[in-house]
């Protein structure tokens, strides 16, 4: 084939795994047999109709009575050919053959035309731009690195309501985890608020929700076992699968490990019986915020606060467990994560750009008051029955309240609607700084920010356009890269120009806040946002 070259083969390897040549040896290969044969030559082996080799049996604490000998590590065969080795790395190559074909159809969707295929292509593009399927990069010499997608490493391996445990693969999303747990009558007690994140991504970055109860709000606190595919020296066969069971001395290192120790392929989590909770958002002035923030987290299990410093207001989340017989079938589909009309996203962005360009800080404050009133009337996305918001409290099952991500399942409408930050439309574009400050320091930090605010309240209206400063509770952890103290975590989100040379309105004030958080109060940035102490979600 004229178009076939080494790069094409490498692309196929990256997309489908190096085993794809064998897996697609048959004549039904959507890419055509020419590709298969030529790529087989490139790999210096013949296409085989039998499909890829089976991976080795790996120890599973839930199903295997005995751990493997001695170290607890399962070594992938010594001296294996690189391609064989990679076949055991959890990549699309390890998913069932039928699924791999779906990947290929996605890749060829544009060529075949037709609505179904266009939809698949749209799915694929959505997958590519929205952060729900992790991609890991293994750098190599001379461009010989690998990108490993965990998109299809997303099985729910087992759910055990008797022992309140569930084992999932590293690419399973929070949504999949929550859904499968609820089906088995279980719940993850605390979680990040956006359910498009993967288990591997959340663990790698110490992702959390908000709570000071039990072990706290971070997902890694509920990990009881993990399986990691880690690099190894040549003498050990280049890669080994490490099973870290309960009490394993390395578990505290691996639970939060920034993706640098290896690929998280399986995780066993300790869950709870499915329960109900009752949510009320209540708005108060911020005069006593500094004192209240310190105690509020101990008063309500799922407490958080959204602070609107420019308006001098705080939305307190009064959110607690209730008995299952309390009536209510509420759902939280947070407005900020819903499919939004592209026209509205573009209009909002243009308005924000206009206010920034003209230095109209007062206009930005009016705009923030307008948008915050609008989402408050809508209950921030809460509904009492899945359809309508009729008032507080909203009572519902944990799996319907804890996280959301409506836009992930939005309509396939040629981008008439999109997630608000979808880069394919010119909608939201922002910086987000996330810093955890020890709870013991939080009062002083808030008071310092209030002093700055009192000098010029208008300087803070920008963060209000992004739902204010979200303040959440995270407990200290035994994980080496977890929090060292009980903390209050501050999410500060604000306008970002598409031109990196253009400053935002009152940039100096927000930078002062960030510097205070990090330097004066010993704040720790979220591991997902450590680039330059700020990044873009
Ligand atoms: C809309 C949105 C809302 C968010 N809300 C919250 C929130 O409420 N609370 C919170 O704490 N955080 C939140 N975050 C941040 C989020 O938790 C982190 O960015 C998280 O890492 C993203 O998960 P991901 O699956 O997209 O991972 P990616 O961004 O793909 O990966 C993040 C890191 O993890 C590594 N990694 C991913 N999978 C694996 C694996 N299987 N094995 C080893 N390493 C792996 C990657 O290499 C990378 O270093 C939010 C992010 C977004 C975009």
Automatic annotation (TrEMBL):
Reaction equations catalysed: L-gulono-1,4-lactone + O2 = L-ascorbate + H2O2 + H(+)
Protein name: L-gulonolactone oxidase
The protein's Enzyme Commission number: 1.1.3.8
UniProt-listed InterPro entries: FAD-bd_PCMH (IPR016166), FAD-bd_PCMH-like_sf (IPR036318), FAD-bd_PCMH_sub2 (IPR016169), FAD-linked_Oxidoreductases_BP (IPR050432), GULO_Plant (IPR010030), Oxid_FAD_bind_N (IPR006094)
UniProt keyword annotations, A-Z: Ascorbate biosynthesis, Oxidoreductase, Signal
Domain FAD-binding PCMH-type per the UniProt entry, residue ranges: 78-274
Classification of source organism: Eukaryota, Viridiplantae, Streptophyta, Embryophyta, Tracheophyta
Top-rank EC class of the record's enzyme: oxidoreductase
GO BP terms in the entry: L-ascorbic acid biosynthetic process
Organism: Ananas comosus var. bracteatus
């Amino acid at each position: 084939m004229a178009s076939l070259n080494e790069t094409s083969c490498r692309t196929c390897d990256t997309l489908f795994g190096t085993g794809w040549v064998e897996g697609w040896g048959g004549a039904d290969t959507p890419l055509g047999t020419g590709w298969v044969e030529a790529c087989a030559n490139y790999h210096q082996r013949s296409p085989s109709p039998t499909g890829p080799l089976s991976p080795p049996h790996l120890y599973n604490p839930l199903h295997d009575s005995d751990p493997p000998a001695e170290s607890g590590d399962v070594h992938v065969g010594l001296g294996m050919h690189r391609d064989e080795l990679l076949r055991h790395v959890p990549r699309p190559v390890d998913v069932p053959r039928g699924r791999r074909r779906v990947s290929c159809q996605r890749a060829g969707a544009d060529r075949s035309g037709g609505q179904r295929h266009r939809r698949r292509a749209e799915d694929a593009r959505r997958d590519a731009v929205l952060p729900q399927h992790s991609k890991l990069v293994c750098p190599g010499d001379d461009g010989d690195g690998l990108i490993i997608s965990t998109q299809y490493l997303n099985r729910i391996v087992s759910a055990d309501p008797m022992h309140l445990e569930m084992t999932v693969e590293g690419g399973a999303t929070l949504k999949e985890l929550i859904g499968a747990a609820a089906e088995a009558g279980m719940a993850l007690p605390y979680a990040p608020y956006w359910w498009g994140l993967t288990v591997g991504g959340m663990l790698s970055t110490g992702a959390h929700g908000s709570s000071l109860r039990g072990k706290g709000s971070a997902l890694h606190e509920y990990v009881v076992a993990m399986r990691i595919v880690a690099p190894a020296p040549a003498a050990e066969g280049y890669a080994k699968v490490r099973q870290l069971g309960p009490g394993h001395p390395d578990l505290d290192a691996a639970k939060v490990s920034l993706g640098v120790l290896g690929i998280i392929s399986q995780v066993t989590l300790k869950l709870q019986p499915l329960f109900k909770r009752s949510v009320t958002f209540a708005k108060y002035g911020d005069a006593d915020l500094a004192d209240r923030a310190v105690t509020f987290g101990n008063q309500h299990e799922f407490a958080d606060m959204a602070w609107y410093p420019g308006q001098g207001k705080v939305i307190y989340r009064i959110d607690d467990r209730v008995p299952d017989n309390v009536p209510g079938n509420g759902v939280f589909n947070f407005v900020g994560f819903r499919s939004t009309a592209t026209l509205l996203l573009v209009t909002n962005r243009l308005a924000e750009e206009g206010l920034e360009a003209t230095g109209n800080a007062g206009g930005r404050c009016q705009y923030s008051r307008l948008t915050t009133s609008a989402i408050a009337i809508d209950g921030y996305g809460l509904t009492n029955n899945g359809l309508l918001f009729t008032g507080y409290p909203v009572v519902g099952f944990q799996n319907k309240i804890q996280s959301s991500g409506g836009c992930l399942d939005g309509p396939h409408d040629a981008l008439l609607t999109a997630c608000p930050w979808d880069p394919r439309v010119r909608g939201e574009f922002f910086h987000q700084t996330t810093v955890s400050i020890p709870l013991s320091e939080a009062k002083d930090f808030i008071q310092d920010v209030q002093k700055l605010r009192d000098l010029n309240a208008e300087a803070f209206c920008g963060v209000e356009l992004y739902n204010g400063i979200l303040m959440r509770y995270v407990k200290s952890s035994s994980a080496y890269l977890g929090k060292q103290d009980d903390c209050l975590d501050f999410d500060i989100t604000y306008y970002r120009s598409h031109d990196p040379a253009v400053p935002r309105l009152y940039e100096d004030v927000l930078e002062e806040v960030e510097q205070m958080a990090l330097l004066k109060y010993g704040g720790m940035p979220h591991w997902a946002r450590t680039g330059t102490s700020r990044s873009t979600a």
